[in-house]
Amino acid sequence: IAAPGTEGLSVIASGGEVVAKYEGNTAAYSNDLLLNFTLIFNNHATAVGAIKSLGSFAAGTELVFQLRVNNTGNNWYTGAASRNADGLFHARVQENWQPGVTLVSFEDLWGNPEGVNGFNDLSFSFTNTQTTEVPEPSTVLLMMLGLAGLIASRRRKA
To answer: Between residues 88 and 113, which one has the greater pLDDT?
Structure first.
């Protein structure tokens, strides 16, 4: 399971082929992992250690992974909490889990009732990826308003 404190990080391609490896789960629910609506792994049907090429991506491309919970119909996403219907993070993304490998671990329950002990419902790792924080839209808006205020105050002084 990816380390606590890595919630909300995005998976960013470093450039080249991205290869995924299924690392396992302890989930009761059946979950599908998808990228761009394409099935990668199912947590109950895929053997631990299975490997799949996801294709080649340009450096800097964000890879938004989706966890489809077959039992409840919920969908959870990597990155910003605002992508999820309950407004909470549902994925941890740990860069350099192993040398050059990023680990992603999903939580499949609404409202994260398992808290820090969760995120054990589907884990997979990648090569050729890195992480970055994706700011919430409200943070970006506040930053833009602050910048606009600075520019306006400088223009008044000139």
So the answer is: 88
Q: Please, which residues have CB within 8 angstroms of residue 81's CB and are 6 or more apart in sequence? A: 7, 8, 87, 88, 89, 136
How far apart, in whole angstroms, are the C-alpha atoms of residue 79 and residue 77?
6
Q: Are 76 and 106 in contact (CB under 8 A)?
A: yes
pLDDT at residue 49 is higher than 90: yes
- DSSP assignment letter at 146: H
Q: What amino acid occupies position 67?
A: L
Please state, in angstroms and rounded to a whole number, the distance separating the CA atoms of residues 19 and 75.
23
Contact 31, 131 (CB under 8 A): no
Q: Which of 86, 69, 76, 98 is nearest to 2 (CA)?
A: 98
Give dist(CA 37, CA 57) in Å, integer. 16
Query: Distance between CA atoms of 8 and 153, rounded to whole angstroms?
Result: 34
Residues 6+ apart with CB under 8 A from 153: none
Q: What is the chain's length?
A: 158
Mean pLDDT computed over every residue of the chain: 90
Write down the pLDDT at residue 113: 80
